[in-house]
Amino acid sequence: MNNALKYDLQRLLARVQPQSLLLVGEGAYRLGAGYLSEHPDCAWTQAHDLEQLIAANAEQPYDLALVVDALEHTDKSEALAMLARLRDVLSRQVIVVVPVGETVPGSASSWVAEDLIAMGMYRAGVYEEERRTLHVYCFDLYDYKPTPDWLNARYWAHPELFDKYWW
Hints:
The protein has a single domain (3-141), classed as Rossmann fold, CATH 3.40.50. Helix content is 31%, strand content 25%. It has helices at 3-16, 28-38, 50-55, 76-90, 113-117, and strands spanning 20-24, 43-47, 62-68, 91-99, 122-128, 133-140. A 6-stranded mixed β-sheet has the order 2-1-3-4-6-5, sandwiched between helices. The radius of gyration is 19 Å and the shape is elongated. The termini are far apart.
């Protein structure tokens, strides 16, 4: 893996400081090992495929899921289901490292940026390797959609005022 990618992922992990970490894919442990060695109190689980991910049902969602070398080796419909499960059920934040816009030899699926943006993710970086270009996409449940200013009690009906005012 690219040294800049490793460094930036370490910075992302240090910023998030997860207390629980779900590692998905062959390369996820290699990239998360530095954080895990510095934080031995961090609970972590590793899943290599969709079946192991389904078996990784946790009582509480993981603070962070790191997905590396998994999506491109999985059928696209299964990979989208895996991402949706990570985003909706298993984790509060998701970091995905995937080659985008190209077919990698030996891969089961090809990805475009719109696939990941449609899942509510944003691109955090692009990294060149010898044979491919890796993109890092992130999803954070808490900054996914800011609360609009109109979403407050001032703009909604108040039953206690029904007989006093006509709108």
